[in-house]
Amino acid sequence: MSWNNTVTCSYCYRSGHNRRGCPTRRARLNEALLKPEEQREYADLNIIQEYERRSKDSRTRKCTYCGKEGHNRRSCEPLKAHTEHVVRQEIAFRKAFVKHINELGLNVGSLVVPHDQSENQRGYVEDVPHLVTKIKWDLISICKARVSFDRFVVARPVHDLMSDRRSAFLNITAPDHWPTGEQWHGNDQRWQEHHYGLKVVSSVSDKAEPPEGWLTDTQLLKEFFKDREDWMWPSEENGRGRSDYYGCDWWDLEKDQELEKIA
Question: Is 60 exceeded by the pLDDT of residue 199?
Answer without folding.
Answer: yes
